[in-house]
């Protein structure tokens, strides 16, 4: 088999890059072995504001301008919904929270995403001693539905292999790469935390942060927005809600834990006051970088190897932009953003 690209990994990063290849009529094959667990269990929320500090998400406006049309195009392509618009209601626990909220209106990159009027309404099932600030232009991408749909699409077209990619079997031959019986011009690694086993990029400072969420059935909880406190509570439909997420820097397994569940249950007690049943628990490893910027670029020595990784908790916003930038860099010699280029660590 001869292709332009081998793609290793089908999380949000790999998927977004494949879309660039299809648009440019490039040939490719994807290797997928589920190392991108963060994409499969992610909440999928896109939110332009860092609510802990009421500060702007990095390049939020620019990322949304690329991401929202990207997901809309995929919805048209597959005739299904991936993007659900939501207001995010930030719980104010103190007068200080409210003051910080109103101070954020002096920040030109934050103010357009905030509603000036506080929400004092009481919502059934939510503890009553709260006021809320509303974040606009937010929502949720159903990442599990998206990736499963895309995986089936690639399978139908013979563009995906469900097997472990073995880095040791790469051989370099002039301007081409041989991998088993596949000859390719380039390889893109979008492996998520699986990059730790990649001898070409394993020295990049990628951290593994475990995140866990629970799905609850709560018939008496009546909210049609994302509730954000120490955790988020997000409607899934059918009286089901996703609650998350934990951040664990020590546990490197992708298995749900009793410790993670109890942390979520204890925090949920502070937000809702209605009975619920836990119907599922998910866990995944987020690939994160200390400076909270993705890892994007080309290997310094092996120029036909590239990486797209480290999207962190905001992958649904970032992935379409960085995939486009990397493709333009590889194929058209476009400039990479200095904040994401892996050269910053070399």
* Number of beta strands: 18
How many angstroms does the end-to-end distance come to? 34 Å
If you compute it from the alpha carbons, what radius of gyration comes out, rounded to the nearest whole angstrom?
21 Å
Low-confidence stretches: none
What is the annotated CATH architecture of the domain at 2-41 and 145-205 and 291-345? 3-Layer(bba) Sandwich
The profile of the biggest β sheet is: 8 strands, mixed
Oligomer: single chain
**Run of helices and strands:** EHEHEEEHEHEHEEEEEEEEHEEEH
Stated plainly, the CATH topology of the domain at 2-41 and 145-205 and 291-345 is called: FAD/NAD(P)-binding domain
Task: Report the CATH superfamily of the domain at 2-41 and 145-205 and 291-345.
Answer: FAD/NAD(P)-binding domain
Shape: globular
Round the mean pLDDT to the nearest integer and report it.
94
Helix content: 25-40%
**Number of helical segments with 4 or more residues:** 7
CATH class of the domain at 2-41 and 145-205 and 291-345: Alpha Beta
Task: Explain what you see.
This protein has 346 residues and is an alpha/beta fold. It has helices at residues 12-23, 37-41, 60-78, 95-103, 143-156, 258-268, 315-332; strands spanning 2-8, 28-31, 45-46, 49-50, 55-56, 83-92, 131-141, 160-161, 170-173, 176-179, 182-189, 206-217, 226-228, 232-237, 240-244, 277-289, 295-298, 305-309. The chain is built from seven helices and 18 strands. A hairpin with a 2-residue loop joins strand 14 (232-237) and strand 15 (240-244).
For this entry, give a set of tags.
alpha/beta; about 30% strand; about 350 residues; FAD/NAD(P)-binding domain; eight-stranded mixed β-sheet
């Amino acid at each position: 088999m001869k292709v332009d690209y081998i793609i290793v990994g089908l999380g949000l990063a790999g998927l977004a890059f494949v879309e660039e290849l299809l648009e440019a009529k490039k040939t490719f094959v994807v290797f997928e072995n589920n190392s991108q667990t963060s994409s499969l269990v992610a909440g999928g929320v896109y939110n332009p504001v860092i609510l802990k500090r009421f500060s702007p998400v990095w390049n939020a406006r620019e990322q949304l301008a690329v991401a929202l049309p990207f997901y809309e195009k995929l919805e048209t392509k597959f005739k299904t919904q991936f993007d659900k618009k939501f207001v995010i209601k930030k719980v104010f626990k103190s007068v200080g929270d409210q003051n910080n909220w109103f101070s954020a209106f002096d920040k030109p990159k934050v103010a357009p995403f905030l509603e000036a009027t506080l929400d004092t309404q009481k919502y059934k099932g939510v503890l009553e001693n709260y006021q809320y600030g509303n974040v606009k232009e937010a929502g949720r991408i159903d990442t599990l539905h998206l990736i499963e749909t895309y995986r089936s699409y690639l399978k139908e077209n013979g563009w995906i292999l469900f097997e472990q990619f073995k880095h040791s079997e790469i051989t370099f031959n002039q301007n081409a790469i041989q991998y088993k019986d596949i000859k390719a011009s380039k390889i893109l690694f979008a492996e998520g935390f699986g990059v730790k086993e990649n001898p070409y990029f394993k020295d990049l400072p990628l951290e593994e942060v475990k995140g866990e969420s629970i799905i609850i059935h709560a018939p008496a909880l009546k909210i049609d927005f994302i509730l954000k406190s120490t955790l988020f509570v997000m409607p899934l439909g059918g009286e089901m809600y996703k609650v998350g997420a934990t951040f664990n820097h020590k546990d490197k397994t992708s298995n749900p834990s009793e410790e993670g569940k109890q942390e979520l249950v204890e925090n949920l007690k502070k937000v809702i006051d209605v009975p619920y049943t836990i119907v599922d628990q998910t866990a995944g490893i987020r690939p994160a970088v200390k400076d909270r910027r993705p890892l994007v670029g080309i290997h310094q020595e092996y120029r036909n190897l590239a990486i797209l990784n480290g999207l962190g908790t905001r992958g649904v916003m970032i992935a379409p932009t960085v995939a486009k930038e990397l493709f333009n860099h590889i194929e058209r010699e476009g400039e990479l953003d200095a904040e994401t280029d892996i050269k910053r660590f070399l």
